[in-house]
Amino acid sequence: xxxxxxxxxxxxxxxxxxxxxxxxxxxxxxxxxxxxxxxxxxxxxxxxxxxxxxxxxxxxxxxxxxxxxxxxxxxxxxxxxxxxxxxxxxxxxxxxxxxxxxxxxxxxxxxxxxxxxxxxxxxxxxxxxxxxxxxxxxxxxxxxxxxxxxxxxxxxxxxxxxxxxxxxxxxxxxxxxxxxxxxx
Length: 184
What we know:
Shape: globular
Strand order of the largest sheet: 1-8-5
Number of strands: 8
Strand content: 15-25%
Radius of gyration: 16 Å
Structural class: alpha+beta
Number of helices: 6
Order of helices and strands: HHEHHEEHHEEEEE
Oligomer: single chain
C-alpha cells in the first residue's frame, strides 16, 4: 500500500527536508500510498456516524470526531496499510529520516482512522507523549495520512504547525490533500 520504494529512493532528500523544516521537524509526502490501492481503501471506509465507530474521547478540543484504531478490519486494503505502517522496512525508513529509533504502537492507541462528522472540528493541541498504557513508551513522532477527497481551500481545516515556545510564531499551514502524509 505505502509506496516504500519511492520513500527509500528519496531518503536523503526526505531526511534533509525533515531536519530543516520550520517551525519544527516535519515532512510532507504527497502520493504516500500507491494511488489505485489508496482509492480502493477509501471506498471501504463507511460513514462513521452510520456505523457507530467509537466517538472520540477528546471532548475538550474535538467535536463530532470518530475514531477506529482497528481500521485494518474494514477491508484488505486498510489491512495492508496497517501492516505496512508496522513493518520493519517502514520503521527503518522512518528511523533514518528522523535520526531516532522508531517503532509504531501496534494497537494504534490514540491513532488509527479518524473521521469528522458534520460540524466537526479539531482544535490545536499537543498529543500525549508517554503512552497511557505503556509508560516506558515515549511518543515523539506522529504520522497523518489524509484520505479526504476533493478538499478545497474554502473548506479550511489545514493542519497548523506552530512553535508554542514563541508567542509571535507564524503558523505553517499544510493543506489536507488526499494521499498526503505528514510526519512530525
